[in-house]
Amino acid sequence: MKTTILVHCPDQSGIISTVTGFIHKNHGNIVYLDQHVDKHADVFFMRIVIEFANEFLDLQNFKTLFQEELATHYKMKWSLHTDEQLPKMAIFVSKYNHCLYDLLSRYRSGELAVEIPFILSNHNDLKHIAEQFNIPYYHIPFNKNIRAEAEQQQLDLLQEHNVDFIVLARYMQIVSEKLISKFPNKIINIHHSFLPAFAGAKPYHAAFKRGVKIIGATSHYVTEELDAGPIIEQDVTTVTHSHSIEDFITKGRDLEKIVLSRGVKLHIARKTMVYNNKTIIFS
Asked: Is the N or the C terminus of the chain less surrounded, counting Cβ atoms within 10 Å?
């Protein structure tokens, strides 16, 4: 069984050798290790993947010993994840279908190692897509008059299905502070710009008017500050004066699909760590 451990703590000597020695002593075989030191903040980050022989594995005992022998001493914040249980990913959508189709196609092909307990939308327009993929679809209307009720319905569904993280596949509503607090650094959004440029409802029209030479997309974790959360993935493509607004939109939507799926895959693989509104992305 593969197990991934994510660690961050104040930088100090001896961390790597102590951790690897502990793993070896507890019959673990290290198959991947990567680390980074933020010199400015003096913080150490590490991602380590271990394989255990089943006859030696007592995971709860391992976690207890890790906390007692390592984490307390080094003041670590850490998490442990096994590959036995697939994470549960809820998808929120509105009316745009390109990101939804892309995620579901990757899911069906086995590219995304997740369970999708449901798709949620503030409209009924994309219900037929959920039916094509045999995934439950919940329509929860959302406006300022019923905001509190709708948010509670969302939370109830997420809790009922034990959802681990949420993907906003062009969900065109502002996510509430209450939801964000329940899923810190576990809500992934796609922004139709190479942040922080061209905010608003028609970014490609604004880019076209400015005569830009590149357009882009950004996937990021959602925070209370709109479109300002820790960035996971970004990409760009070139455009010229010969391209129309429709060309901008087509190219942009291709980027949105790619960048969102990359961000989701990095999150699923436990390759992201968030610190001070920035991400450490391991290879």
From this structure: C
Query: What is the mean predicted confidence (pLDDT) over 115-144?
Result: 95
9-13 contact pairs (CB < 8 A, 24+): 9/43, 9/44, 9/74, 9/75, 9/76, 9/77, 9/78, 10/42, 10/43, 10/44, 10/74, 10/75, 11/37, 11/38, 11/42, 11/43, 11/44, 12/44, 12/74
Question: What torsion do the CA atoms of 126, 130, 132, 135 make, to the nearest 10 degrees?
Answer: -170
Confidence of residue 20 (pLDDT cuts 50, 70, 90): very high
- The mean-pLDDT minimum among 128-132, 159-163, 211-215 falls in 211-215
pLDDT digit string, tens, across residues 43-66: 999 999 999 877 667 888 999 999
Phi, psi of 191 (to 5 degrees): -110, 135
254 labelled catalytic: no
Catalytic residue among 227, 235, 247, 254: 227
Answer whether residue 72 shows pLDDT above 90.
yes
CB atoms within 10 A of CB 249: 18
CA pair distance 83, 81, nearest whole angstrom: 7
Q: CB neighbours (10 Å) of residue 16?
A: 13
- Residue 199 scores a pLDDT above 80: no
Q: Is the preceding omega at residue 196 within 30 degrees of 0, hence cis?
A: yes
